[in-house]
Amino acid sequence: MSDLAAARLRLWHPRGALCGVCRQPTRGFGWSDPGRSKRPRPPVWFCSMACQGLWARLARERLGMVDLTELEKAAIRAAIKPVAEVMEEIGWDKRLADLSEPQVLTLIEVAIGGFQTAMRAQASITSEEVPF
Questions:
Q1: What average pLDDT does the segment 17-29 reach?
Q2: Can you give the pTM of this predicted structure?
Q3: What does the alpha-carbon distance between residue 117 and residue 87 come to, in Å, rounded to a whole number?
Q4: Non-local CB neighbours of 59 within 8 Å, separated by 6+ positions
Q5: What one-character-per-residue DSSP string does 62-75 give?
Q6: Are strands 29-31 and 44-46 parallel, antiparallel or unpaired?
Q7: How far apart are CA 74 and CA 70, in angstroms?
């Protein structure tokens, strides 16, 4: 890749940004508000066309994305089983404050991973055409 091409790539793709749906590293799929307004919405980046399509569908259904959607609530419920399996290994009688750092990190990774997996699965099921 030439220096000019690398410079252009850096201009449009935000390094280190996370997917607006599943929070994975982005891979070049994005959305930017084309309209001019007093309060323009920030651009959103995605890891795949499936996540971009899901986000577009949710954006059409709801203008403000403050509360959890039904899909996000379902993804949280789907993450309960893997978290429960880790807690079974750790022991249900331990308080969160008594867990070691590796145990807490494992618990967090499993919870986030379960949520992301459920969101990705839902995005692949509801893959619709992106409206642009």
A1: 83
A2: 0.51
A3: 19
A4: 65
A5: -S---SPPHHHHHH
A6: antiparallel
A7: 6
